[in-house]
Amino acid sequence: MPAEPLSQKEIEDRLAELPGWSLDGDRLTRTYRLASHPAATAMVVHIAQVQEELDHHSDLTLGYNTVSLSVHTHSAGGAVTDKDFQLARKVEDLAPGHGAH
């Protein structure tokens, strides 16, 4: 069953529960600043593992001590769906100093 696009209100309501995440055009985005380049690199590896588990992948950008994500659902015509928020929540949970540990 294809993922259904979320309404603007649904997106805004869900973003309120994910501090740091925002809507940039038709994508959910977030940038994390970490203590070092090795820490940022390790986070990218963890995110890649979560994405494989969910079978849902974001665009990931690794900077010196930053990790940026940008995600939407290709199978929903590039719209934001529940799948994007599932990924965002999982990433929050594994981010240092964010979510659950």
Write a brief structural summary.
The protein is of the alpha+beta class. It is 39% helix and 20% strand.
Order of helices and strands: HEEHEEH
Class from secondary-structure proportions = alpha+beta
**N-to-C CA distance:** 32 Å
Tell me the number of helical segments per DSSP (H or I, 4 or more residues long). Answer: 3
Helices and strands in order:
Elements: H1 8-15, E1 22-24, E2 27-33, H2 37-54, E3 59-62, E4 66-71, H3 82-94
Antiparallel strand pairs: 1-2, 2-4, 3-4
Helix pairs in contact: 2-3
Describe it.
The structure is a single chain. The protein is α+β, with helices and mostly antiparallel strands and 101 residues long. The chain is 39% helix and 20% strand. The chain contains 3 helices and 4 strands. It has helices spanning 8-15, 37-54, 82-94; strands spanning 22-24, 27-33, 59-62, 66-71. The chain has a 4-stranded antiparallel beta sheet with strand order 1-2-4-3. The protein starts with 7 loop residues before the first helix and ends in a 7-residue tail after the last helix. The model has no long low-confidence stretch (mean pLDDT 94).
